[in-house]
Design a protein that fits this description.
The protein is mainly alpha-helical. The chain has four helices and two strands.
């Protein structure tokens, strides 16, 4: 369950989140299961792509070897958060975090509903 204080801080925008991170460097935001559907658009909250937030995409098309290469590329970027479309993609990232001396604070996988 998400920490209500962390969710509220995130919804305040980039400046509030960055100030909180600076004041709490050893506390990681807990946003597990958070409903951010009512959050304002990212730019309105002060997040600007390429400046203080970056989205990087990789599609391996089911190729396990390519998945490992992409996972290594992503770990070289030292992300704070990884969102994987499949559990196998997330597993590839987890394997790389054991071999690359970088820390990913949060990792998520989402699955399509089979119905």
């Amino acid at each position: 369950m998400a920490n209500d204080e962390h969710v509220a801080m995130l919804k305040k925008g980039a400046a509030a989140r960055n100030a909180w991170r600076k004041a709490n460097p050893f506390i990681h935001s807990d946003l597990r299961g958070a409903d951010l559907s009512d959050a304002r658009p990212l730019q309105e909250l002060g997040w600007t792509s390429g400046r203080n937030i970056q989205f990087t995409y990789r599609w391996e098309r089911g190729d396990a070897e390519r998945m490992g290469v992409y996972a290594a590329e992503l770990m070289d970027l030292a992300p704070d958060v990884v969102l994987a479309a499949t559990t196998s993609a997330l597993a590839a990232v987890r394997r790389k975090t054991r071999t690359v001396p970088k820390t990913v604070r949060r990792m998520f996988a989402f699955q399509r509903c089979p119905l």
